[in-house]
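F.,

This is the one I mentioned.
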């Protein structure tokens, strides 16, 4: 049986994920600027939530995914956004350069280069189980389907995948993050969206 959520319950989690992602990007490059394009129709259909304008002038498209199930040690890679409407999942169509996958409870931000992650995943897709979630929007529901992929496997095998953990020396309200170095499968130096 799929997990069930309400849109009312999902939206605050998505906002927290974007807030942590913004703090992470500004901490990573203090001279950079963040442009929130979540509500901009030009970017919604492209799967881009933020534009990160780096101090070099380069602009990086960022997709943010918030996850409240961080203790399980898996990513949920969205393959079908709305099963009832046959809408593809953001993981498959996003043109973002970077997926910031945020484990909300732990305040961890995982930087995942989206093109490399997608290429890696598509070569191994049959290895990973699929899970479904149901989200209530008013009186109706929709089903999202995604692959459950172990974090350790991605961090060990996808070039450029990085895990950032919260800096314990900062007060909780500052959301500062530090990079975690060599652990098993960790390399040194990654929103919930409405169904369409």
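My design for it:
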């Amino acid at each position: 049986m799929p997990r069930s959520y309400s849109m009312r319950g999902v939206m605050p989690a998505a906002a927290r994920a974007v807030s942590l992602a913004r703090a992470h990007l500004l901490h990573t490059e203090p001279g950079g600027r963040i442009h929130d394009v979540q509500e901009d129709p030009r970017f919604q259909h492209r799967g881009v939530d933020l534009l990160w304008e780096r101090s070099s002038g380069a602009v990086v498209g960022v997709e943010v995914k918030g996850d409240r199930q961080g203790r399980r040690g898996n990513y949920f890679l969205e393959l079908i956004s709305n099963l009832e409407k046959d809408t593809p999942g953001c993981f498959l169509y996003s043109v973002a350069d970077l997926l910031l996958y945020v484990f909300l409870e732990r305040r961890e931000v995982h930087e995942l280069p989206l093109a490399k992650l997608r290429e890696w995943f598509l070569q191994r897709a049959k290895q990973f189980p699929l899970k479904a979630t149901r989200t209530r929007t008013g009186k109706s529901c929709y089903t999202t389907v995604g692959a459950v992929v172990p974090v350790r496997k991605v961090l060990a095998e996808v070039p450029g995948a990085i895990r950032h953990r919260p800096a314990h020396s900062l007060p909780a309200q500052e959301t500062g993050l530090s990079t975690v170095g060599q652990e098993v499968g960790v390399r040194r130096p990654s929103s919930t969206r409405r169904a369409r």
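Residues 113 and 139 are 37 Å apart (CA to CA).

Talk soon.
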